[in-house]
Amino acid sequence: VFTVKPEIAVTSCPASCHCIDKNGLTVVQCMSCNLETIPPDLPRDTVVLLLAANHITHIPNHAFRELHYLQELDLSYNDIETVDVGAFQGVSNSLLLLDLSNNHIQSVPKEAFARLRAKISLSNNPWHCECTLQEVLRELHLDPETVNEVICHTAVQEEYAGKPVIQVLDSGINFCNFHHKTTDVAMFVTMFGWFTMVIAYVIYYVRHNQEDARRHLEYLKSLPSNSQIIVGP
User: Fold this and answer.
1) Helix/strand number for the chain, H first, E second
2) Last residue of a domain, one of 149, 173, 197
3) Is the dihedral of CA 105, 109, 112, 117 positive or negative?
4) What domain count does the chain have?
5) In the chain, fewer beta carbons within 10 Å around the N or the C end?
6) Which CATH number characterizes residue 146's domain?
7) C-beta of residue 138 within 8 angstroms of C-beta of residue 159
8) Among 45-54, 90-99, 223-232, whose mean pLDDT is lowest?
9) What's the domain range around 141?
């Protein structure tokens, strides 16, 4: 259901896209257009933007910031690997639907979806399950119909690879705690290594000085004794 907005004419349309006006709502269709980037010249009154089935690999900062009426954004079936921190700045208040399913996204910055109220689909991406993803999902309104299709392709704990992220988190697993434990173990190993090096140096230093002292003592013993005084006639 779209909200009512003032009438704004469609003044331009990106090449290879098709722009139509449906009851004063501008719909931009750019599906299967072999696009590699998001078109920069989108009509500012765009309400629905359909970019599915292209070859887009990256969502840069402020990609949609001029689209103040944007309510539906479909980026499914692309080759998206990276999403910048400010990718959706400017549309956080208006966007209602966001589809990022069927891409190549492994992780996203936790700030990328900040303040988004949209229902989001993240299914069928090769997600790496770790602390950042857990924090991202905590703040999102995931599409309930596809939530079980958000799968751990890889994970900081290998036994969770291949399982739905929500299922893993609902079981009580906390990837952030695991991250902290891993960091603590790494720090302990590093400190133990340095400690071992220091002890080894001290042992070497003591043994080296003992050897020098022994040689010095043997040299002193080899010197002529002055304890005998020769008395003349």
Assistant:
1) 3, 11
2) 173
3) positive
4) 2
5) C
6) 3.80.10.10
7) no
8) 223-232
9) 18-173
